[in-house]
Amino acid sequence: MPIELLTWLMFGSLFLLLLTGYPLAFLTGGLAVLFIAGLWSPEALSLLPQRVWNNMTQYLLAAIPLFIFMASMLEKSGLIEEIFDVAQNLHLPHTVHKHPSPPPPPGGQSLRTWSSRKSP
Questions:
Q1: What is the mean pLDDT of residues 82-88?
Q2: C-alpha–C-alpha distance, residues 96 and 100, integer Å
Q3: pTM of the model
Q4: I need a labelling partner for 13 at 20 to 30 A (CA). Which of 27, 28, 55, 88 fits?
Q5: How far apart are CA 87 and CA 84, in angstroms?
Q6: pLDDT class for 86, splitting at 50, 70, 90?
Q7: Residue 52, Cα to own-chain centre: how many angstroms?
Q8: For residue 114, is pLDDT > 80?
Q9: Sign of the Cα pseudo-torsion (9, 14, 15, 21, in order)
Q10: What is the structure's pLDDT at 96?
Q11: 99 strand-pairing partners
């Protein structure tokens, strides 16, 4: 089967199954099982547990829940609002000795966020 047709079949079936409302994790796993069994052989399904185990035991995956936890703690403590307020106040036009400073550059909060980061 040509790769172009296979790609269209995979994405088309994923799109159609997403319309059913099932969770994405179950749909992609189920489609993987169906395509492996259909394209290779049912014996190839024995590779799935090994591949899943190898992917889930990577220590780098521990960073994902830790980043989510850190963002949640910063939000609950109110520190995020304070950080953005400080960044916004650094770039707002203000008057010093009756000499107005130039207006801030266009770009809004994204430029403030970028410019408030620490440089290495």
A1: 78
A2: 6
A3: 0.47
A4: 55
A5: 5
A6: confident
A7: 20
A8: no
A9: positive
A10: 47
A11: 96
Structure tokens at 55: 């992917």
Give the list of residues 6+ apart from residue 103 with CB closer than 8 angstroms, or none.
Answer: 93
Q: By C-alpha distance, which of 51, 16, 21, 20 is closest to 33?
A: 51
* Span 20-46, pLDDT tens digits: 999 999 999 999 899 988 888 888 888
Asked if residues 103 and 92 have their Cβ atoms less than 8 Å apart, the reply is no
The DSSP symbol for 92 reads: S
Which residues are within 8 A (CB) of 84 and not within 5 positions of it... i.e. 6 or more apart? Answer: 109, 112, 113
Distances (CA, A) of 105 to 39, 46, 91, 98, 113: 56, 58, 9, 21, 13
